[in-house]
Amino acid sequence: QVQLVESGGGLVQAGGSLRLSCRASGRTSAMGWFRQAPGNEREFVAAISITRSGSSTTYADSVKGRFTISRDNAKNTVYLQMNSLKPEDTAVYYCAAVMSTYYSGRIYTSETYDYWGQGTQVTVSS
Prior knowledge:
Elements: E1 4-7, E2 10-13, E3 18-24, E4 30-36, E5 43-51, E6 54-59, E7 67-72, E8 77-82, E9 91-97, E10 115-116, E11 120-125
């Protein structure tokens, strides 16, 4: 059984920054971040995958230019650097992973992912 452990959430003022981390207990190809605010559906934030030709990243329009996803393959860890945070970024953030060597499919949909973390709360005050 693969486990994903998230960390780095917290309370920050609008305009501030946080960095989320997610460590996987095994090798992953695609790793993504999703978030869910109270009363809302879970939504895609950002994802990164290892493909046969290199790596690929994708972002939700709402976070482009503010958030950056990266990974350390040696540590099986993905990071989400969140800058210029807004109150509307407040949500529980979930890490998700696909356990394979390569993945070239749609990494922006939750159905892609095999494993999920427990979530970490991010609260942005105005």
